[in-house]
Amino acid sequence: MNKKQHPRIRELKFTLRRIFKNPSAIIGFSLLFIFVAVAVLAPYIAPPKYAHNPYLMPHKGYSQTPKPPSSDNIFGTTSGQYDIFYGAVWGTRTAFKIGMFVIGFALIIGVSLGIISGYYGGIIDEIIMRMVDIIFAVPLLVLTMAIVVAFGRGLDKVMIALALIKWRDYVRVMRSSILTLRELDYVQAARVMGVSNFTIMRKHILPNGIYPVLVMASMDIGSMVIVAAFMSFIGLGAPKGYADWGQMVALARNYIVGPADDPLKYWHAIAIPGACIVLFVLAWNLIGDALRDAFDPKQRRR
Q1: How confident is the model at residue 1 (pLDDT cuts 50, 70, 90)?
Q2: Cα–Cα distance, 58 to 243 (Å, whole number)
Q3: Of the N and C termini of the chain, which has fewer Cβ atoms inside 10 Å?
């Protein structure tokens, strides 16, 4: 006689089947798998020239005019003769580093404060939410630029600034879920049985309220890469020669359009790092859409 599967395992299998029946999820995870493979195999695909800092792009010469793809540089070179292929490969690691650090830190802070705010309510809720409202009063880009300018330029400063701001979004989403969950019968029953507040939040509320935040976070990973690329483009992010897609676009900003007789002469300098950004963001957005459809209770059993 076959044993019945645990309900959580059964639900997990159902969710995975629902996710991978979605064509968007298949495309998104396929793109993500390619980026992960490139990031993991970066030292073998593009061996670093500078062992002390593999994120520095190698360059031959100092000419400001990009050169087309050749046998020596299969993606060509950008302004300053930096190798575009090397930058595209190691820029994948930079993109994952930005997205995972910013969203990981923001999730920990945002989810924790959201649970506390929604579960306890009262003065604690007022203090946390008014603090969130103050941070929301300033646009993300403006506040990020202000923090980076105040504490010094650099990609690490951009990542810290984004992490210190982005948690505000997750507090609101998590709190809205908790306000509904805390009144449900199984939570009230746990209170009557004398279960501690911490255990209720950890075992009964967090697992059931985290899904909207996870969907939001999966889409925000791509968004943070775009913001960091913009910061590098305006000179507040990665330094010149660093393997960052935004910095590579910034190097080629004067060559978006070529000479009058050949306007697409330097297409590779912009199109290749630009395509990397677009595909990376697209992968996370498609995954986020698939997760939203899989976790949506109104569509889940259709």
Answers
A1: very low
A2: 10
A3: N
Q: Which domains does the chain have, with CATH numbers?
A: 7-295 (1.10.3720.10)
Find tokens 């009063």 and name the residue: 137
Q: Sign of the C-alpha dihedral, residues 210, 108, 139, 284? A: negative
pLDDT at 99 over 70: yes
Q: Which of 13-17, 39-43, 153-157 has the highest mean pLDDT?
A: 39-43
Structural tokens at position 118: 């929604």
- Beta-carbon count within 10 A of 251 CB: 26
CA 35 to chain centre: 13
Q: Give the C-alpha distances (Å, rounded to integers) separating 98 from 75, 103, 113, 167, 170.
A: 24, 8, 23, 15, 18
8-state DSSP, 47: -
Rounded Cα distance between 266 and 106, Å, is: 38
SS3 56: strand
- In 3D space, the residue among 90, 23, 25, 76 whose CA is nearest the CA of residue 241 turns out to be 90
- Stronger pLDDT, 143 or 16, i.e. the higher one: 143
Note the pTM of the prediction, 2 decimals. 0.87
Q: Determine which of 16-20, 56-60, 155-159, 164-168 has the lowest per-residue pLDDT on average.
A: 16-20
- What is the rounded CA–CA span in Å between residue 287 and residue 290? 5
Within 10 angstroms of residue 199's Cβ, the number of other Cβ atoms is 11
Task: List the structure tokens of 174.
Answer: 């998590």
What integer pLDDT is reported at residue 23 of this predicted model? 84
Residue ranges of alpha helices (H) inside the chain are 7-20, 23-40, 42-45, 84-120, 122-136, 140-151, 155-181, 185-192, 197-199, 206-209, 211-233, 245-251, 267-295
DSSP letters, 66-86, are -B---SS-TT-B-TTSBBHHH
For every residue of 230-290, DSSP letters joined together read: HHHHTTSSSPTTBS-HHHHHHHTGGGSS--TT-TTTTHHHHHHHHHHHHHHHHHHHHHHHH
